[in-house]
Amino acid sequence: MTHETQNGKIPYYLIVMFLLLSVTIWVGGYLYYEDQKKEIKKDKLEDLSAIADLKVSQIVNWRQERLADANNIFDNKLIIPHIQQFLAGSSAYKQEIFRWLESIQKYYLYKNVILLDTEGNIRLKVINGQEVIGPDAKRLAEEAMQSRKIIFSDLYRSKVRDVIRLTIAVPLLASKGSDTIPIGVVLLRIDPYQFLYPLIQSWPTPSRTAETVLFRREGNEVLYLNELRHKKDTALNLRFSINEERLPAAMAMRGITGVNEGVDYRGVPVLAVAQPIPDSPWFLVTKVDRDEIFAPIYDRLGFVVFVVSLLILCTSITIGFIWRKQNAEFYREKYETEMGKRELAERYELLTRHANDIILSLDQDWKIVDANKRAVISYGYTLDELRQMNIKALRAPEARALLVSQMGQVQEHEGLVFETIHQKKDGTVFPVEVSSRAIEIEGGKVYQNIIRDISERKKAEADLLESEERLRAVIEAGMDGIIVVNEHGKIVLFNAAAEGLFLYSSDEALQKPASMLLLEETADAHQKRVEKFLSNGVGQCGHIGRRTERTFRRKDGSKFDGEITMAGGRSESARLVVVTIHDITERKKSEDEIRKLNEELEERVIQRTLQLEDINRRLEDEIIERNRAEAEISELNKLLQHRALELEAINKELEAFSYSVSHDLRAPLRSIDGFSKALLEDYHEKLEGEGRDYLQRIRRASQHMGQLIDDLLNLSRVARNEMHQDLVDLSELVKEIASDLQTARSDRIVKFIIEDGVTVKGDARLLCILLENLIGNAWKFTAKLSGPIIQFGVIQYEGKPAYFIRDNGAGFDITYADKLFGAFQRLHTQAEFPGTGIGLAIVYRIVQRHGGKVWAEGETGKGATFYFTL
Q1: Can you say whether residue 640 is alpha, beta or left, with left for phi > 0 and alpha for psi between -120 and 50 degrees?
Q2: Strand 221-224 versus strand 211-218 pairing type
Q3: What's the rounded mean pLDDT across residues 492-514?
Q4: What torsion, rounded to 10 degrees, do the Cα atoms 237, 238, 240, 242 define?
Q5: Measured in Å, how far apart are the chain's first and last C-alpha atoms?
Q6: What would the pLDDT profile of 165-222 be if each residue is shown by its tens digit?
């Protein structure tokens, strides 16, 4: 290399470096291009997978919503009896059933809703245009009635009207004894072009080729179920063999789902994700043309080629500059290297000669080739004498046998630290620590030994071991239990006296938590105090450094009282707590006996002096008791006053909230009702019958909402207002309410049977509201009778009076009695009996505030009885 540089030639290694760098740059550019290609492909596949998951989730949700609609019809036990009567020939409920079917068709967006009887005849229908029942629909209806289950059909093309449909057949089951029988079927017909196909065809991001395909298997063919983006009239028409090797839909049919590459129905290469639709025979493929995915990377190819060429040019210029510079720096570097070697050798010589440790250099035969000044002083040999010796001669006779194995380990591991015994020229032996390492010097192997005299350390270790043995002997001989706990709360020392106290052996106690020696109720608190001390010092634990008494637990579960002293300590690496425990069980017994004797003596003295001090004691006790009572009354008055102020503030906030809710909700309702009324009055002639009916419905709904707000506010006030306990004549209240109802509705004649003299203690205002709601309910539910009767009376229930309101009206199904007193719980439709479902909730709140109980009994068509206690 030197010769070529001096003759002005470019060294071969620079040429090789240039070629390697050029190849590296080209390879790096290619790898960058491929990496970008993979990243774009990965991102697009992740997008496709996410879109596929989204589409599958949307389709599953759509199917579940449709099944939920069908289940609502299937489980509607209130409408089934009406439909049964209608199908049997009665027209009493025809309009109601039609409106119910119409609401299902309108609000759930079904194409048609059709009611069939058991013969497959159309009895009622809500349709858009003409409708007939084809063989497919009849087959679904028969299957639903036979299985008594909801049938969700697949997509099919009607044989009658040549349209694509989905149909849900809901069997209508009526009770017959302990069994159920089908009485008809409701067909919910879905137009897939209305929601399903647009849902499948939509794509969340802009794309010119992206597409979602829905398909299923028919025999050995794949049948496409939806209209495709790049081909028209494909729904239920386009088919391919399941053996098409690269077709993503056929691959899915063969069990190859997830991400794959293939060729779509146009013969165009695509990236696709295929997934099955759960709980259906359908599969879904989301796909994008391969050319669209890789279009961005083709644009970057020219840029990559330009950058790679530019980097190669820069590399050639840099190599030339390096070559020019090497000629100038070659000799300077050589000179500096030689000077550095000389300076390093001088520093090494100075370090070894004047080091405090012995340094010996050995050849491969372990002969000493060099030694420092400390070696000469330590062994008593001259430097020349040491250079004539083998390292074995410096060892004590008893340590020479280990030399071969130890030096073998040095050679094997290229270094070792070990302890041995060396011998001076005068025969004195001393322990040493040797750090031996094999090093290469000018092609030869040299062993460098750094040797430290460890006589003082060995003497200190022996003294420490002796001190520890003495301390252990003192601890084991102690009469009190001594336990040492480390910073983790584990026992690290457990003396013999502790074994006798706790009945644990030392082996059983060591490394166990100290808390096992304490009662469970005090163990956690004590452990936390000890941990706090160990982490922060003595000042953080109140028990450290002073005597305290504590109850301990033995191995057999028995308890004993002990006096403990805790002191902080520290080992080489951790904090410790030393606990001394003295058994004071006998002392506690003696103290208890002395205390009992003192108590008996005090009792005798008190009895002796009782007669003399009786009058004064009574006066003092009376004064103290009176002062204490006055103080307690004063505190209670303050507390009651504070509670009253808090309650008043809460009530004001609730009242303000109720007013705000009432005002904010009523304002838009009044606007809805007012504008609806204006439309009816001002545009009556311009509105068709259906438009006027819609506005009437809006008015009724807004008025009903207003009534709901009033009832909710009443319910809130009932639970919030202060109660006043008075003697209330319930009989008179019932008579007043009955009189008011008769006056307000003179067109009705209702017979009231009222028991006289029924009085209770309670809040007259709340009890009046309670009776108004119960009697108002009875009045409402007897409206359709020719001879209505409402009765008020009292019976005995569980040893106390229970008051009741009874009527012979519509009654209710006793199965739903537990829902009567919940807010908005109604057992009758709004058309049958208007109301909001709040009245009985108010009744329940009032009875609850009086500490009573309310319940109801009834039977459909035979009236109802409401009972309450106070």
Answers
A1: alpha
A2: antiparallel
A3: 85
A4: -70
A5: 114
A6: 899 999 999 888 788 899 999 999 998 988 888 988 888 888 888 999 999 999 999 9
- C-alpha span between 841 and 715 (Å, rounded): 7
pTM of the model: 0.38
Locate tokens 């000629």: which residue?
327
Q: Rounded to whole angstroms, what are the CA distances from 319 to 10, 11, 12, 231, 305?
A: 10, 10, 12, 60, 21
Tell me what percent of the chain is helix, strand and coil, each rounded to the nearest 5.
Answer: 50, 25, 25
* Bridge-based pairing state of the strands 800-807 and 759-762: unpaired
Please give the mean pLDDT across all residues of the chain: 81
Q: β-pairing, 429-441 with 444-453?
A: antiparallel
The full 3-state SS of 768-810, as one line of letters, equals HHHHHHHHHHHHHHCCCCCCCEEEEEEEEECCEEEEEEEECCC
User: Which of 9-23, 45-59, 395-409, 445-459 has the lowest average pLDDT?
Assistant: 9-23
Q: Are 169 and 140 in contact (CB under 8 A)?
A: yes
Judge whether 526 and 518 are in contact, CB under 8 Å.
yes
Question: DSSP code of 584?
Answer: -
DSSP string computed for 425-459: TTS-EEEEEEEEEEEEETTEEEEEEEEEE-HHHHH
Q: Tell me the one-letter amino acid at 27.
A: V
Sequence-separated (6 or more) residues with CB below 8 Å from residue 59: 196, 199, 200, 214, 277, 280, 282, 284
At residue 2, the pLDDT reads 43
Q: pLDDT per residue over 224-258, tens digit each? A: 999 898 888 889 999 999 999 899 999 998 988 88
DSSP-assigned beta bridge partners for residue 800: 797
Mean pLDDT (whole number) for 399-403: 86
Distance CA 213, CA 235 (A): 10
- pLDDT score, position 560: 86
User: How do beta strands 789-797 and 751-754 pair?
Assistant: parallel
Whole-angstrom distance, CA of residue 745 vs CA of residue 82 = 31
| Contact by Cβ (8 Å): 97, 86 | yes
Return the H-helix or E-strand segment holding 534. helix 520-536
pLDDT over threshold 60, residue 537? no
Give 790's strand partners: 752, 807
> By percentage, how much of the chain surpasses pLDDT 70?
81
| Residue 410 structure tokens | 């040095």
Higher-pLDDT residue of 109, 651 = 109
3-state DSSP assignment of residue 608: helix
Q: What is the rounded distance in angstroms from the CA atom of residue 743 to the CA atom of residue 754? A: 18
SS3 372: coil
HSE (CB half, 13 Å, CA atoms) of 247? 19
DSSP 683: S
Return phi, psi of residue 513, to 5°. -65, 135
